[in-house]
Amino acid sequence: LDEDGKPVEKDSLGRLKYRYVTDEEAANRDNYKTGMAYNYLDGDQQSEVFYDYGRHTLISDKSRVYKGGSWADRAYWLTPGTRRFKDEDKGDRTIGFRCAMIRMGAPTGNDAESGNQFKTKRSRRTRR
Question: Cβ distance 35 to 41 under 8 Å?
């Protein structure tokens, strides 16, 4: 809702349009006091010296985490707990989308048999 209480218009894909909170709007808030708080005190004199400003670093607003592995990765990267970082503007031939199954079972339905159907061994009859 905007300041008049009317619904905010959406973009062409139906998503809400976002904007940053200004410092004047955040001045009377209790939970934060700066408008763009995601980068608060990053880029000041102390962090420039500590992070060696101007070189490539993973401590920035442009680095992103990606999880999982691909066909070209070792088994270590397939575990869910491993994370890698990459600049959001960079790409890789092994980063893409995942194919996921929406259901399990036979393609024709849940009542049909699927997969390998092995014969079971019959028990031998004992003769007297």
Answer: no
pLDDT tens for the chain, 128 residues long, are 777 888 888 888 888 888 888 888 887 777 777 776 665 666 665 555 544 555 656 566 778 888 877 778 888 888 878 888 888 888 777 776 666 666 666 667 777 776 677 788 877 777 77
Going from N- to C-terminal start, the domains of the chain cover 1-40, 56-105
SS (H, E, C) the chain: CCCCCCCCCECCCCCECCCCCCHHHHCCCCCCCCCCHHHCCCCCHHHHHHCCCCCCCCCCCCEEEEECCCCCCCHHHHCCCCEEEEECCCCCCCCCCCCCCCCCCECCECCCCCCCCCCCCCCCCCCC
- Asked whether the beta carbons of 33 and 41 are under 8 A apart, the reply is no
